[in-house]
Amino acid sequence: MTNDSADRLGSFGPFRWGAETHIGKVREENQDTFFIDRYLPLFLVSDGMGGHRGGALASKIITEDLPVMIENALDRLKVGTTRTIRSVLKRAVAEQSRQLHLEGTSETGFNDMGATIVIMLLRNNRCFVANIGDSRAYLFRNNRLSQLTRDHSVISELIEKGRIRPEDADNHHAEGQITRYIGMEEKAHPHVRSLALKKADRILLCTDGLTDLVDEKTIAAILRTTLDPQTTCKALVAAANKAGGYDNITTLIIDYPNPS
Questions:
Q1: 47-56, 77-86, 89-98, 114-123: lowest mean pLDDT where?
Q2: Rg, C-alpha atoms of the chain
Q3: Residue 190 buriedness (CB in 10 A; 0-12 / 13-18 / 19+)
Q4: CA 224 to chain CA mean position, Å
Q5: Residue 237 domain-assigned (yes or no)
Q6: 25 lies in a domain?
Q7: For 19-28, what is each residue's pLDDT tens digit?
Q8: What is the pLDDT of residues 56-72, one digit of tens each?
Q9: Which segments of 107-228 does DSSP mark as H helices, in order?
């Protein structure tokens, strides 16, 4: 599932989901895409790198090819342990990045094509999250919002090293500069983690078009007060547009368990 079905609501088993993508108020093209396979279940959000000619093509290729790679790898697993599933995601992301880089050097590609991604795979009441770049996954549990992913960006590295304070990030000259992405020349190393799901957990996958403009306190308030996942996705997108809509915005929410 990609942009053309962004207004559909789905439910399967104990889970419900909603998704919304929007071009924003400034960009001429929506380079965000998302994918949902309700049978795996697998959820993916990709953000074509802003300003790069091949951004839209890169995110489109990723949402078409990476889910197939992950599904095929899972089918070949003899034992689906937490460790082996995390390994599947790491290898699939690295291989997708290698293939996209090769595509970028071909006659039909662009030398600078690339994208960020965030993935969530559900297995036996456990979620596996992988990301590369600055697209994020959040867990909303017991009215608290926590980031599950790690930003691969210059700003994130500076904060981790104590060179700048988090509150200074918005005005820093390195804002928006990422250090890892799908399609990079070097081997891509995604951040991968897993956790057991609990009743009433809510997972948000999103691009930086949301998080650069809407603070986590506001995101948490919307997640807390809006129950339907599709309505919540729309409310988050509306909040980003109200704050300026300087980038494409994509939100995807998975609720566990299905309240109905």
A1: 47-56
A2: 17
A3: buried
A4: 21
A5: no
A6: no
A7: 999 999 999 9
A8: 999 999 999 999 999 99
A9: 154-160, 208-211, 216-225
Supply 157's token pair. Answer: 């590295």
Q: What CA–CA distance (Å, rounded) separates 21 from 181?
A: 20
Among residues 120, 119, 85, 125, the alpha carbon closest in space to that of 256 is found at 125
User: Is residue 256 included in any domain, yes or no?
Assistant: no
Question: Does residue 12 form part of some domain?
Answer: no
Structure token pair of residue 187: 């081997």
Cα–Cα distance measured from residue 28 to residue 86, given in angstroms and rounded to the nearest whole number:
37
Asked if 152 contacts 179 with a C-beta cutoff of 8 angstroms, the reply is yes
Query: What is the number of domains present in the chain?
Result: 1
For residues 164 and 40, what is the distance between their CA atoms, to the nearest angstrom? 41
Flag whether the pTM goes above 0.85. yes
State how far the Cα of 5 lies from the Cα of 36, in Å rounded to an integer: 10
**Which DSSP helix (H) or strand (E) runs through 238?**
helix 229-242
Instruction: Output the 3-class SS for 67-132.
Output: HHHHHHHHHHCCCCCHHHHHHHHHHHHHHHHHHHHHHHCCCCCCCCCCEEEEEEEEECCEEEEEEE
- Look up the domain containing 65 and give its range: 31-209
User: Could you say which DSSP state residue 49 is in?
Assistant: P
Q: Are 183 and 115 in contact (CB under 8 A)?
A: yes
| CATH code, 123 | 3.60.40.10
- Could you tell me the CA-to-CA distances from 226 to 157, 202, 229, 231 in Å, in that order? 34, 12, 8, 7
Tokens of 203: 């997972």
